[in-house]
UniProtKB/TrEMBL annotation:
Residues 8-47 form the L-seryl-tRNA selenium transferase N-terminal domain. It catalyses: L-seryl-tRNA(Sec) + selenophosphate + H(+) = L-selenocysteinyl-tRNA(Sec) + phosphate. Keywords: Cytoplasm, Protein biosynthesis, Pyridoxal phosphate, Selenium, Transferase. The keyword Cytoplasm applies. SUPFAM superfamilies: PLP-dependent transferases. Its cofactor is pyridoxal 5'-phosphate. Homodecamer; pentamer of dimers. Binds only one seryl-tRNA(Sec) per dimer. Converts seryl-tRNA(Sec) to selenocysteinyl-tRNA(Sec) required for selenoprotein biosynthesis. This is L-seryl-tRNA(Sec) selenium transferase. Pathway: Aminoacyl-tRNA biosynthesis; selenocysteinyl-tRNA(Sec) biosynthesis; selenocysteinyl-tRNA(Sec) from L-seryl-tRNA(Sec) (bacterial route): step 1/1. It comes from Leclercia pneumoniae. Belongs to the SelA family. It is found in: Cytoplasm.
Length: 459
């Protein structure tokens, strides 16, 4: 009993701990309230230990309280190195924005902006107007509408132009984009009935034609952006469908997914269909994402015919799906870069990363290898050729040749790879690679800050 009493009296009082300068940084970091709470919990644990084991816990109170608080603090959004080889990685935030967009967002956050305000008093109305003018310039469309993402764009297009009516889609295009976004489900949510035509691999013009009746609201094309149908296939392209739509007086809409505004073949990438081409071919509405190949913020962009866009703008869902001032500011700054296409690869991170050539990545790899390898003696570290991908369902089957630093365990044990990957995930700026073929790959395509990278890897 007496020993227990003397042990209890050795427990430091909360007040005394709080006055100790060693606790100051903890209070600064986690706040007074949470620190006191954590100290009380530790004291209760210590009293339990005395009661059950007749011993004081062995911890250092200051380190322990910090450890407990840190473990109990959700990590939140953290910057990482995306060395996965997927440039537009949905789980890592897709497109990195241009400095011009970053500056525009900062300004829109700090100052009042003309979100829905005409300085010339012309009363042009809604928040999408300035962007719509820019988008019309870039795509040749008559008008535009902006929402929070392309999934929202598809929902709004369907709900505002085809509710209670039929939408004709090829069976080969009833795609799932990821998450719960499947074209048939979106149709249902928009109140449309889906009229499937053709087969998985082959759909012909006559299939669409036969499906059109007095209850048909739209013909729809969905870009199969995350998979490819190969072999014995046939699809009707947007131009042909638009022609039929004109003949039969049914609008054609297209969900383009990525929708690049520039011809990617100039960077050695396969060409993606471009919104301006579909508009020129007579498609009535075209939707695409802001944060895929466009390289901007998360947004859904719809361009097309004036009277259909007006329906979208007036639909109650538009109010629920509208983009905020930060998104609009970032998107405007991003789109303005497209007015200077010659500078795009320099200023727009997405295109800059996608267009890096294999030779320069190999060179970067060799430079890094010399510094990294000596710190990883349990691994054979090499520079190896690899194939990166744009990601986010854009350019589904195409691969970009590049270079990676690879780490192969000398003892051939796979568990070493997992251990290394998890050690890198625990770094102050986590380094995220990919395990494949018995080694850990750090694809260098998206590595721009070499100094910080080396600082992390040589820790
Ligand atoms: C990515 C994609 C979507 C969804 O776009 P988000 O901007 O991610 O909402 C819809 N349709 C297609 C064809 C896509 O590729």
């Amino acid at each position: 009993m007496t020993t227990q009493h003397s042990l209890y009296s050795q427990l430091p009082a909360t007040d005394r701990l709080l006055r100790d300068p060693r606790l100051l940084p903890v209070v600064e970091k986690f706040g007074h309230v949470r620190t006191v709470e954590a100290l009380r919990l530790l004291q209760a644990e210590a009293r339990d230990a005395i009661r059950q084991q007749q011993a004081l816990p062995q911890w250092d109170w200051f380190l322990e309280v910090e450890k407990r608080l840190a473990a109990d603090t959700p990590p939140g959004l953290r910057p990482v190195f995306n060395l996965t080889g997927t440039v537009l990685h949905t789980n890592l935030g897709r497109a990195l924005l241009a400095e011009e967009a970053v500056a525009a967002v900062t300004q829109a956050m700090r100052q009042p902006v003309t979100l829905e305000y005409d300085l010339d008093g012309a009363g042009r109305g809604h928040r999408d107007r300035p962007l719509a003018e820019l988008l019309c310039q870039l795509t040749g469309a008559e008008d535009a509408c902006i929402v929070n993402n392309n999934a929202a764009a598809v929902l709004l297009m369907l709900a505002a132009t085809a509710a209670q009516k039929e939408v004709v889609v090829s069976r080969g295009e009833l795609v799932e984009i990821g998450g719960a976004f499947r074209i048939p489900d979106v149709m249902l949510q928009a109140g449309c009935s889906l009229r499937e035509v053709g087969s998985t691999n082959r759909t012909h013009a006559k299939d669409y034609r036969a499906a059109i009746n007095e209850n048909t609201a739209l013909l729809m094309k969905v870009h199969t952006s995350n998979y490819a149908i190969e072999g014995f296939t046939h699809a009707v392209d947007e131009a042909e469908l638009a022609q039929m739509g004109r003949e039969m007086n049914v609008p054609v809409v297209a969900d383009l997914g990525s929708g690049s505004l520039v011809d990617l073949s100039q960077f050695g990438l396969p060409k993606e269909p471009m919104p301006q081409e579909l508009i020129a071919a007579g498609v009535s509405l075209v939707s695409f994402s802001g944060d895929k190949l466009l390289g901007g913020p998360q947004a859904g962009i719809i361009v097309g015919k004036r009277e259909l866009i007006a329906k979208l703008q007036q639909h109650p869902l538009k109010r629920a799906l509208r983009a905020d001032k930060m998104t609009l500011a970032a998107l405007e700054a991003t789109l303005r870069l497209y007015l200077h296409p010659e500078k795009l690869t320099e200023r727009l991170p997405t295109l800059r990363l996608l267009s890096r050539d294999a030779a320069s990545l190999h060179q970067l790899g060799e430079t890094l290898l010399a510094q990294v390898a000596p710190h990883y003696s349990d691994f054979e570290v090499r520079v190896e050729p690899c194939l990166s991908q744009p990601g986010s369902g854009s350019l589904p089957v195409e691969r970009l040749p590049g270079a990676a630093l690879t780490f192969t365990p000398r003892d051939g044990r796979g568990s070493q790879l997992e251990a290394l990957a998890s050690r890198w995930r625990a770094l102050p700026v986590p380094v995220i690679g990919r395990i494949k073929n018995g080694r850990l790959w750090l694809d260098l395509r998206c590595l721009e800050d070499q100094t910080l990278f080396l600082e992390m890897l040589l820790k």
